[in-house]
């Protein structure tokens, strides 16, 4: 009798496991394409994966990398599920009619900056006349920032020589004096200063209020699978909040161990950059204090679009409400 009962229980357990297996194994596999290369500045996302924050949302992430304009083209075409480009590039994409949606304004302000050695005498955009300036691509947000900065200084892009240099080499071109200035990320100032260089910096956000990296998806994905989008943005929020909550060095260590080992010797510089810039004023703002990380300021997005249109960087300013969504509004 007991043997027969045991056989029934074993059979029942096997059937139950079979029935539950598809649900247990069910997981949304998404491709997340990030702006640039594999660098420790994306440590919160790497830590989010390694800490299981995406897995908690039943999501498996594959990271790919590309330039911002390519990311947005891929999003619109459905080649990737989510992207992490710079906000200026998103505005340009929306202005050109690409069906992209910002679903998490991760960086609450732009981090683009003009960097030049102090010895160059370049202190304003007007000082760039006749100089050589490097950007990562002619479709990059930093190229848009360069155009606006020059126009506001009474110059045009024809007044400088523009060099296109990969993101992995652009800082070195300034160090070696192959160019007079670069328009890239303010975070690279820490790297240059650690190398013994005195640097002049002009923050792009001072004359072009904008946003750094933001999470985007296609209009189709948001309409057809809002639950996936909501779960994905929830995982992104948890990843960044974990870093903010005293885990800067832990996140960087995860990045060094599994994603960016060649940056290991720059841990102290990166820790300072994260604490003084990212945590202090990039990922957080008065708006996020009120509504949570990733909150969207539509007025600021609209101002960014209007400025780009005013200076003819884009033809017409798109309506921010048409391409920017607050995470809390995703149902």
From TrEMBL:
Can you say what this protein is called? NitT/TauT family transport system substrate-binding protein
Q: Could you tell me the keywords of this UniProt record?
A: Signal
Q: Where is the SsuA/THI5-like domain?
A: 42-245
Q: Which InterPro entries match?
A: NMT1/THI5, SsuA/THI5
Q: Which GO terms describe its biological process?
A: thiamine biosynthetic process
Keyword Manganese in the entry? The reply is no
Pfam families assigned = NMT1
* Signal sequence residues: 1-26
Keyword Signal found: yes
């Amino acid at each position: 009798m007991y043997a027969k009962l045991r056989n029934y229980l074993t059979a029942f357990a096997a059937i139950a496991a079979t029935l539950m297996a598809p649900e247990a194994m069910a997981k949304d596999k998404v491709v997340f394409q990030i702006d640039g290369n594999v660098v420790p500045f994306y440590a919160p996302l790497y830590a989010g994966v390694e800490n299981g924050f995406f897995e908690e949302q039943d999501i498996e992430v594959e990271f790919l990398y590309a330039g911002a304009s390519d990311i947005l083209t891929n999003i619109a075409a459905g080649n990737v599920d989510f992207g992490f480009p710079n906000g200026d590039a998103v505005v340009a994409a929306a202005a050109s009619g690409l069906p992209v949606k910002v679903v998490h304004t991760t960086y609450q302000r732009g981090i683009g900056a003009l960097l030049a050695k102090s010895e160059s005498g370049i202190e304003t955009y007007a000082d760039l006349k006749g100089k050589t300036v490097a950007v990562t691509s002619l479709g990059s947000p930093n190229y848009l920032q360069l155009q606006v900065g020059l126009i506001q200084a009474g110059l045009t892009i024809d007044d400088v020589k523009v060099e296109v240099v990969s993101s992995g080499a652009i800082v070195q071109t300034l160090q070696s004096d192959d160019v007079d200035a670069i328009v890239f990320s303010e975070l690279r100032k820490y790297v240059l200063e650690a190398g013994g260089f005195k640097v002049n910096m002009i923050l792009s956000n001072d004359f072009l209020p904008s946003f750094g990296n933001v999470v985007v998806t296609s209009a189709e994905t948001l309409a057809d699978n809002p639950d996936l989008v909501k779960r994905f943005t929830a995982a992104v929020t948890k990843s960044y909040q974990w870093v903010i909550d005293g885990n800067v060095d832990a996140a960087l260590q995860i990045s060094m161990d599994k994603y960016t080992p060649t940056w290991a010797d720059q841990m102290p510089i990166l820790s300072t950059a994260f604490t003084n810039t990212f945590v202090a004023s990039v990922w957080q703002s008065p708006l996020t204090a009120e509504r949570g990380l990733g909150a969207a300021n539509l007025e600021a997005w609209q101002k960014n679009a209007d400025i780009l249109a005013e200076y003819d960087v884009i033809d017409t300013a798109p309506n921010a409400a048409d391409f920017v969504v607050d995470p809390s509004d995703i149902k």
